Description:
By secondary structure, this protein is mainly α. 80% of the residues lie in helices and 0% in strands.
Amino acid sequence: MFFQPLIYAFIFVGVFMMVEGIYLVIYGKMLKREKKINRRLALLEDGKDTEEVLSILRLEREGAEKHEKIPVIGPLVEMARHAAIALTISQIVIALVGLTVLSFVLLSVFTGAVIQIRIVVALIVGYAAFYIWLRGKAKKRISLFEEQLPDALDLMVRSLRVGHPMNAAIGIVAREMADPLGTEFGLIADETTYGMTITDALDRLAERVPVPDLRFVAIAINIQSTSGGNLAEILAGLSAVIRARFKLFRKVRAITAEARWSGWFLSVFPIIALLMVQVVQPDYYDRVSDHPLFLPGAILTAILLVVNIFFMRMLVNIKV
């Protein structure tokens, strides 16, 4: 009885790890290569022309936007797009079906739950594991983009100060920076080559990559293109502000580190204590398990633990 929820948790972790393993098997070699060279340059190196590369990258980044409003599937499509993982609707459905079937088989082997519960839990585990995995990939990519942005702005500033035009400065960033920023700025360089204005290309980038600082860059360049001004100084100021914000953010995280770890410990300790009690004395709750208040009390305790996690996160999650 007490180990049933833990078995569900272990099955969820196993399914989640299997998703990561399959991803590494399929894309592992490509990921190793893209650590050395960004995806756009890798495609050009393979012999594809600029127009073909632009079409491929646009399809990967923007091809599934129209499907983001589909119920249930839409959030997965959005996370995959933010993570720059090219997944079609059919591939997402196949993955969900496969993960659900795998979860159902594991539940059938390791639990004695009735078939209705196994079906519901398998659906939840399959969808949740896939969504959390995609969300983690998207969050990691967006965080890396945010860290790369000040360096890219500094590179553009140096290029502008030696007399290069804006198009050339963006092209230098596209060649010199690693993914994800290198490929995204390469898309801007290619789009401007084929007739799109820099401001429009930056607006499209700000829509593809949900980074607030990128929106500020797009607005600054848009204002400068209409009203004039020293663009190098504007971008240098933006870079300084972004770096200062990162510095403040890391300082806040350092200050709140003890509180965050205390919150996680207080949240996890009751579960660890329950496991230890079950291992040391499995019949500890037998005398009270039949009491009518036992199950409501256990449910209330679980709810309070979940509420505690949310409140602790609200207390230490300081926006910078």
